Amino acid sequence: MPVPKKFGTFSGVFTPSILTILGVIMYLRLGWVVGQAGLIAALGIIVLAHVISLTTGLSISSIATDKKIKTGGIYYILSRSLGLPMGGSIGITIFIGTALSISLYIIGFTENFLSIKEISDFLGIVPSVDSYRIVGSVVLLFLVLIAFISTSFAIKTQYVILSAIALSLVSVFAGVFMNVEFHPATVALQPAEGKTLEYVFAIFFPAVTGFTAGVALSGDLKDPKKNIPIGTMAAIIVGFVVYVVLAILFATLVDRDMLLNDNNFLMKIAWFSPIVVAGIWGATLSSALGGILGGPRIIQAISKDKITPKFLGKGYGINNEPRNALIFTFLLAEAGILIGELDVIAGIVSMFYIAAYGFINLAFALEKWASSDFRPSFRISKWVGIVGFIASFSIMFKIDTMAMILSLIIMFGIYFFLKKKVLELDFGDVWRSVWQSVIRSSLHEMDSKEQQERNWQPNIMLFSSNTEAKPHLIEFGKDLVGRLGMLSNFDLIENKNADVLFPKHKQSLQTDDSRKYKGIFSRRQECKDYYEGVEMIARTYGFSGIEPNTILLNWQKSKDPVRFAQTVGTLSDLDLNILMMDYDSRFGFGKRKKIDIWWRGRGNSGNFALSLVKFIWLSENWRDSVIRLLIVNRRNDEKSRI
Predict the structure, then answer these.
(1) Range 306-312 contact pairs with CB under 8 angstroms and sequence separation of 24 or more
(2) pTM, whole model, 2 decimals?
(3) Between 20 and 30 A from 122 (CA), which of 226, 259, 303, 419?
(4) What is the DSSP letter of 522?
(5) How far apart are CA 160 and CA 289, in angstroms?
(6) Using H for helix, E for strand and C for coil, what is the string for 287-344?
(7) Residue 505 pLDDT > 50, yes or no?
């Protein structure tokens, strides 16, 4: 039986990543970035962009050494960490960014392709947005056909392209020193007028997104846990060094007017221009090919999780080639090519990728902080993820606030749509661990601080004994805790014989009330005697920092009034507030327009009643009610004090 073809660190991760990093932006826009921003700001832009790519690369690498990564790359990582709704919304964002990046690389290729006079004359096409659209569409179709033939064939072509890029860089390095006629009179250190640095950053940023090309092929790797960290970090570091060196050389050895006004200046300053042309074509086409290979695998994985249509998840052949997803990716990339302007596409791609990278860093930080199951062999501090998350969204805000808000609205719109579909993974996600960590820290803070009267909130234990027979108890209990308190409803079941009727994991109940209302919890517990159960639970239930402070019981004629009185005395000794409800089913709660408080004028019962009214008013049922405070003054001697 044939074995699926798998790839190692160099062929499967480093090569596709570095080919995408050293691509269209390096050849066709880096010079303009340096000319527009000046050397100092250009180096700042390169460093800042690599802060995001480096932190994201480290985060991905750490997660990759903890979990088994299958087809889907970044989407698979995020969905298994943040859950399907959030992972799906970010995964769809990454897929769109990947598909549009294909358009970016192909438009870059056509810009250079048609700038060569001999080619444009031969084809009879003048360089323009319309001609970029026509030639770009033909190139896209050609690359999709290559991907259709075989992923293995597509990856093998990368070695030839990598060699062409290396030779073109040698030619550029030699040319900037040899061609002294292009040297500037002064070094361009400060920004030029025209474009803001935020705009320049948005154009440059797609240059550092290439490290995800290798991660996207995770399902085709021999050992993703080893291949992804080494290949990804190596590609990011090599790319950073190349960009910094080129920026310094362009600023010091190339005239600023040429940098600003000629996107194809490398062909003029290079020692041997045909090699540079080969490098540009190879880099742009291989980057596009990387997106064509990776993009379909992302949407294929999303579809297998039943987030997007099922037909996009279908695979063909021994390597499970995502041909349906490839056609869909082709259509989306073609829509990007019809935009026709490289700078516009670059800005859109930047926003999609920066948002996705921010959430990747957040996923790592949450896993590192909260998850007891997170044990990566590639260990880094959670602050790497936090810095990456903050940097990503700070830069998005600075580049284009409205675009950031729009992208987040789209992402969270998808998130809430998927949330409604109630999509869950069998092995869960990180959020339960996050809430447990938050609760742990909160309990510590609450336990270390003394309770203040202004912060008092009702934490009620309700002993319904039979919830279905006494719905008025739970109904009034919900009104008492309002939007801020907590209510634990204990359904006590007397069982004279069995020691354990309900094991611990079966005591917690998910009722309609507990699902609908925050702060409402239902428990089912057996006891040999009802009053014994009430006393036992009242003594032990609760956590330090959020101990229950109030008991709600049904007022009824007891078969054992002495035992009932003993239980009430015990609850009083435990310093618990005691509420007993005498409910008349003939009248119910009336129109809920008036609350009468009868107070003898002594003790704290009046203060307690008034405190409860604050929370009752927060409920929808009683918010329009008014209070009457009624105090009996038999001899009229307390009138002035009252």
Answers:
(1) 306/423, 307/84, 307/88, 307/91, 307/92, 307/418, 307/423, 308/92
(2) 0.71
(3) 259
(4) E
(5) 14
(6) HHHHHHHHHHHHHHHHHHCCCCCHHHHCCECCCCECHHHHHHHHHHHHHHHCCCCHHH
(7) no
